[in-house]
Queue: 2 jobs
Job 1
Amino acid sequence: MFRIPKRLLAATTAVVVTLPLTLMSTANAAEPHVDNPYAGAAQYVNPTWAASVEGAATRASDPALAAKMRAVKTQPTAVWMDRISAIAGNAAGNGLRFHLDNALTQKQSGTPLVVNLVIYDLPGRDCYALASNGELPATAAGLARYKTEYIDPIAAMLAEPKYQGLRIAATIEPDSLPNLITNISHPECQVAAPFYREGVKYALDKLHAIPNVYNYIDAAHSGWLGWDSNAAPAAKLFAEVARTTQAGLASVDGFVTNTANTTPLAEPYLPNSSLVLNGTPIRSSTYYEWNFDFDELDWTAHLHSLLVAEGFPASTGMLVDTSRNGWGGAARPTATSTSTNVNTYVDESRVDRRNHRGAWCNPLGAGIGERPQSTPAAPAASHLDAFVWIKPPGESDGASTDIANDEGKRFDRMCDPTFVSPKLGNRLTGASPGAPLSGHWFESQFVELVRNAFPVINGGGNPPTDTIAPSVPAALQAGAITNTSVALTWTPSTDNVGVTGYDIYRGTTLAGSSSTASFTATGLTASTAYSFTVRAKDAAGNVSAASAAVSATTTGTSNPPGGCKVTYSANSWNTGFTASIKLTNTSTTPLTNWRLTFAFANGQTVQQGWNAVWSQAGSTVTATGNAGSWNETLAPGATLDMGFNGAHTGTNNAPTAFSVSGQPCTLG
Ligand code: BGC
């Protein structure tokens, strides 16, 4: 019979404890190997990661944001064995036994529990990049250590009878075999190749021998392997390596795509990658470079058919890492473009807002994607076992500057927001500034991921039981207009099921919310035309399509809130530059709804900015605070640091005419 550990016996005599009952009845019963381990199962929530999220929620000054973070905190994320010391536990986090023991306590009676575990320490790891170079060299000695000091102890622990009641889903070595397909001409990958093959074979063998462990090989993403010229050799390589194991193809349960990447699950406004627009296939666009696979639903279906052709069974399951591929927020398109130009059509329609599909490091604008779930609603051809969160949101992909460390991590310029990368067709990386080393907590990115989540995160606690998209308010008209404010009214939404309020947009910028059918936009510039739209929303944050726009022009001259000082500096290279701006409120009253404008003289353009909402019309650039956020108001004497990456054509003089809400600022 199951022996109750002494510690638990003592507890049962002291208080009424329900946990040991759960443990006794089911937790330790051996889990048979099933086809889809996620079916009917819950997934393990990493308490260490959840504590980082709670820390962020505690520091968030916006209560609505904090509530959303607390909803994210309850989501399952993978545990990364990213170096040998991660097995026992190190300064970066608790060890494997801590997680397995916690998983036992999380397991509810009658519901299997899947622990997502990442096997990530191959000799010569990350051969085509630098940010996650590992600890083991691509040598015979490195491989020997991989086997005896890394895989063997992990396998030994997973095989303990104590853990036989858990389901362990192992993500096998992100990026490794895919690198051998596309980057084999790179010297480091050439050297690493035999060790990747042998290391993956060894991991598959050892882990497959444990009945409750499931092997999912990392299969990159659609923007990496989607082209047939990459996809077919990849499926062949996966089969080739699997065939070298003792169990052959049966050592593989499935494949996981989009690990730690931000490629969308679906491109809702580009549903047909074969579409031909005015005689030009949309896949020939600069963005898709002839790739048929626009998203992970395309890629999983494509790959599955190739795997089956290679001899893998039809039951082979697919996982998609959806932790950061949501692409919501104000920049998300809401309809298919009407342009007849293929590039404009694609660029205006795609929800993936990256500069290039190869950009992988902390991409600006990304959001949390679908929540982890088993057998999600998806086309049958994709054979999805589950959506999983392999990359824990909030953990960096790599440092944006060179940071000394003893983790074998190096400075990869793909993580540097000022870098124009030849790997990205000479475009800026689009990486977030201020990033710490890979795997380290990156709070400002986490805030963005939560803000840009799609589906939106319901901070209210219980997920909505309906899928209401409230109808658009019928009529919107401007009311009173003064020199710096516009009063708007509209006919309330007729969809009275679940409408709790309205979001008001000034152009594309969220200007505020209202629970009634009126709103006054303040802090505007005198004698300026503005356009407003309104969206109805329900308690879960679902929003309607935008109402018709109304335009209103403010009157007279500005009555600005007070003085301002601006310091501008820029780093310029070839045709790009990074600008940093410090805006100080030199008045004695708070500067609310501030609106900074300035003018470029040499045709410069703003590409991507931070710590403000940026827009540009002709030579005039405008920056405002993020509505409802910490930077919307500047206290007397306070300074806000903001900046942007820009492009220029050779001459890059500093802009002029800095003013806030129409009042000129002094330059410092
Ligand atoms: C890093 C790991 C980290 C993982 C999850 C990888 O890029 O190299 O150290 O554990 O991301 O955040």
Job 2
Amino acid sequence: MKLEPCILVIFGATGDLTHRKLYPALYNLWREKLLPERFGVVSIGRREKTPAELRADITGSIERFSRTPHLAGVDLERFLAMFSYYRLDFNDLDGYAPLKRYLSEKDKIYGTAGNRVYFLAVSPEYFALIARQLHTHGMASQKGSWQRVVVEKPFGQDLTTAIELNNDVRRTFQERNIYRIDHYLGKEMAQNIMVIRFANTLFEPLWNNRYIDHIQLSLTETVGVEGRGPYYEQAGALRDMVQNHMLQLLALIAMEPPVALDTESIRDEKVKVLRSLKVTPEGVVRGQYGRDPAQRLKAYREEDRVAPNSVVETFVALKATIDNFRWAGVPFYLRTGKRLMRKYSEIVIQFKKLPGVLYFEDTRLDSNILVIRVHPDEGVYLQFNAKQLGTTSMIVPVSMDFCHNCADGLNSPEAYERLLYDVMRGDSTLFTRWDEVEYSWRFVDQIAQWWRGDRNIPIYPSGFWGPPESDLLLAKDGRRWLYFVRNGGS
Ligand code: BG6
């Protein structure tokens, strides 16, 4: 598909996101010839930066973070020529009129006709301010061209602040031009969930409470808060991971087939799931990481700019249900946390046991299990029962395992590549619509409310699977957490 010309304007160009994700993603898109022919990037930051410094920044970030190494034969100069830097203090309201002139100049140079993607890679307190200035200075609604805005998470702190923020952004941009990022939706296997479900006779007929016993969704990490103390003190795992990534994956797993594959039809179905989600106070567990047994790693409370008596959760496990005909009675167990034993993201679908006849009369057989692996492996694993090889009649679990990214040299695109590409072509399917954000906050806010004022938080040692309460949550239902990650994870 040929993309229309445009300028990508990155607010927050000296920040972590731009370095780790945006520059490398642009580099890979460029190498794969997926950028518009007429295209430029304006990086905006508060600090002074000479053209040489900007080039060093971009080159450094490609070297460190790009999924494909920079090759000697590739003419990086042509790539770097697309970038320029503009210094702006976002609070300086006098700085926006000159910015407008600067961007118009760039339009003439690149032939981009006023089409813009404004990427707000800044801390959330600037979202509304920048959006308002873009509006005031006529940079967000230019006739005969399009302007889109990309907003990073967190989209608000709770429902009330999310509504305020949304109103602010909506004053400037129409809903169809607002791209709220949830980078999990850009991951290969997240995009694959719908295909696996709706393109296979094998799965969809069984995808309901008649055949599925329960579903587990784990997004676990080994890292701690990594210098993001102040942000994390406000967010905690509930707002950092559950409100967005986990609920989005859950919605894709549980939604009804959409009437069509267009953006709005898919989002309509996801919202219905989020609206029907239920949880009880007994169904939620939180925890916070302490040191590891060898005392080498800091406890959360010892991290930089974290309160020494903080009760912010770095771990959440919960049991949710979905009040509809398809899912009534099927528990969805979710867990996420930092400083756990492995970094992996997986969705485990455990099917019901067969009735106690035939092979099930006197043997306990394993259930069929389907695993959608999101990270580090990308693929699908299916476990079923078969006769053991040889003369015995023993039945054993066997598996079929499909791994996307295991083949040599196969390096799946980073989520941000797909997301940036989609913004430029105007496809918002992999971004969250306002009502999805709204219902996710409603779900999360009630849990935050239950925790308010409670200063008791279980502390778990770094490097384990979270607090014992998390195992108990499943043990009460006669179940346990499962994980299938190959090679023990990363
Ligand atoms: C981000 C969270 O949205 O997702 C981080 O803010 C978290 O705290 C990260 O580490 C996890 O993403 P991924 O792609 O590494 O699983």
